[in-house]
Amino acid sequence: MSEFEPPYSHVGEASPPSLEAQDEETGPLSQFRHGAQDRRLLELARLDAGLAANADFDDKPWGLLYRALVDSMGLSPDDFQLIYPSVPWDWPCPQAGFVHAAQHDFCATAPQWSAIGAYVSSGDTVHQAYQQFLNTALAQTDYRSLRQHLNDADDALTTATNQYTLASASAASAYAAQVEDNQPSFTQWLGSERGRGHQARIVAAQAGMNRAQAHYAALVAQCQSPGLGQAQRRCGDERFHVRLSDLNLIRMPKVPDWRLARSCDEWVAQVESGRGPAGVTLGFSNREAPYDFAQTWAGRRGRIRQLFWQVRINGRWERIDEFEFDNKLELSLDFQAVDTIAIRPGEWFDGEFARSMIDGPFMPGYSAFGGDTVETRGQPVFGERGFFGLMKSGVCVGYRPSFAIRTSTSTFRRFADPFKAATGLRIGPFVFEAEGGSLAAGWSADPATQTFSGATTSRKPSIVGATVAELPNAGG
Fold first, then answer.
1. Residue 388, exposed/middle/buried by CB under 10 A (0-12, 13-18, 19+)?
2. Which of 108, 137, 127, 129 is nearest to 216 (CA)?
3. Residues near 313 by Cβ (< 8 Å), separated by ≥ 6?
4. CA angle 470, 106, 360 (to 5 degrees)
5. Would you list the DSSP string of 34-98?
6. Separation of alpha carbons 85 and 120, rounded Å
7. How many CA atoms lie within 13 A of 447 on its CB side?
8. Are 402 and 394 spatial neighbours (Cβ–Cβ below 8 Å)?
9. Which residues of the chain have a pLDDT value below 50?
10. Residue 358: its pLDDT value, please?
11. How many CB atoms lie within 10 A of CB 97?
12. Pairing, β 402-406 against β 330-335
C-alpha cells in the first residue's frame, strides 16, 4: 500500500461525514474502565471486614504520625502517602531482564486516593490503566472504512479485556480471603499451590487480550494520530518488559519494567558501612490536636482500616486499648536511616504523550475528568473517579527503628504484663519484631519513667510510605 492510498479504501467511497454525524453503535462496556471506582470501594470493604469488632477505635494517632513523618523526613503533604500494613523492603535483585514479583507488585500497583492508604498488592496496575487510557484516546482518521475497522477492533478488544479483568478480579478475591498483610504479594501468590489455577486463567485471558490489543494498535498506526500510534507501539514493545524471576511464574508473560534508583541490598550495605543517609527521631503526644488532612494532596481524610496500637501475643495481634485512650501517652521513634528511593516507569510509558492528553480528545462516552456539560459528560479518565489517576514516584523507607512509649502510671501497670509476653508490637504501619519474646529481644519496661522501649530484631528496612504523582502530569 502506498503512502497516498487510503487504508481499507472502497471504490467510489465519498468523503466521510464528521464523527458526530456517524451512526455510532454502542459496543461492550469496559469492566476495567467503568468498574475502577467500584473495585477500589470493594478493596476498602474487604479491609473494613477485619475491623468489624473494632469500630470504635481511635484513628487520630495515624494523622499525628503522618505529620511527624512529614516534619522529620523531608517529605511533603503535597505528595506523601503513609502506607499500611507494614511492607518490608527486601526485594532480591535478580539478573538484568528480570524482576522480583514483590517489587513489581509494589511499584506497579496504583495507590489509593488517600493521604494514608492501605497497600493492596492485588489492586489495579498503572500499566493496565495506561494501556486503557491509550485505548480511549481518539484515533483520528478521514476514512469511514478504517473507522469501522477501529470500532470493530475496539469491541473485540473490550470483550477480551473484560475476560482478563474477570479472571484478575476472581484471583484478587481468592487472594484477599487467604492472605493477610500482602505476605506473599499477589503475584507471588499466583505462583503458589493455591494461586496456580488462577494464574493459568489469567495467562489464558491475557493471551487473548494481547492479540486483540496488537490488532487494535496496528489499526491505530494507520490513523492520522502519530503520537498515539507511537505511544501504542512503545507500550507493547517487549524490549521494555521484563520477566518475573520466580520459577513458579515462568508461564506468566513479561511485565512492564519499573526502575528503582537503587536496590535494597545496595542501600542497606551503604547504611551499615556508615555511608548511607542519616537517621531521624520523630514522635507525638496524644495531647496534640488532630492533623488536618485538608492540607494534603488527597484533600480529605479517609477512614483508616487498621488499628494503630497492637501487640502480638501467642501468635495473635491484639488491640491495645490503654494506649488509645491515655491522654498522657508520648511516642518517640528513632530510625538509624531514612530515605526516599525514586521509582519511575520504563520506556513503555510515554509521559509526554499522557500530558498532552489532559484535555483529550477521547472516544465518545469518555472525558478527561468528567463533568455536567455535554462536552465533559462521560466516564472520567483521570482524577479520583477515573481509572488512570495515580502512580508511585518513590518509596519511603526506614531502617532499624526503635521505640519509646511513655504512658500514665495506670496505663503502665495494665500493659506491663502483656508487654513482657509480647513477640511483636505494631505502631501504625511499623512492626517491631521481638524474636524469642520482648525480654530476649532486650525490650525494657521502666516503672520509674513509665516507659516501654525497644528495637526491632529484624534487619529488613520497612516501607514507610510512598510519594505519589497525579496523572497525566506524572512520570516519563
1. buried
2. 137
3. 418, 421, 422, 423
4. 30
5. HSHHHHHHHHHHHHHHTTGGGTT---HHHHHHHHHHHHHTT--TTTEEEEEEEEE------STTE
6. 9
7. 5
8. no
9. 1-24
10. 95
11. 11
12. antiparallel
Domain definitions of the chain by residue range:
31-403+459-470
Q: pTM, whole model, 2 decimals? A: 0.91
Cell of 217: 494498535
Quote the pLDDT of residue 370. Answer: 87
- Residue 16: the pLDDT is 36
Q: Over the Cα atoms of the chain, what is R_g?
A: 25
User: What is the model's pLDDT at position 337?
Assistant: 96
Name the nearest CA neighbour of 433 among 466, 397, 462: 462
Write the Ramachandran bin of 284: left for phi over 0, alpha for psi from -120 to 50, otherwise beta: beta
* pLDDT reported for residue 23: 39
221: cell is 498506526
pLDDT attached to residue 158:
98
**pLDDT, tens digit, 9 for 90 and up, residues 175-219:** 999 999 999 999 999 999 999 999 999 999 999 999 999 999 999
Separation of alpha carbons 470 and 476, rounded Å: 13
Element (H, E) at 164: helix 144-178
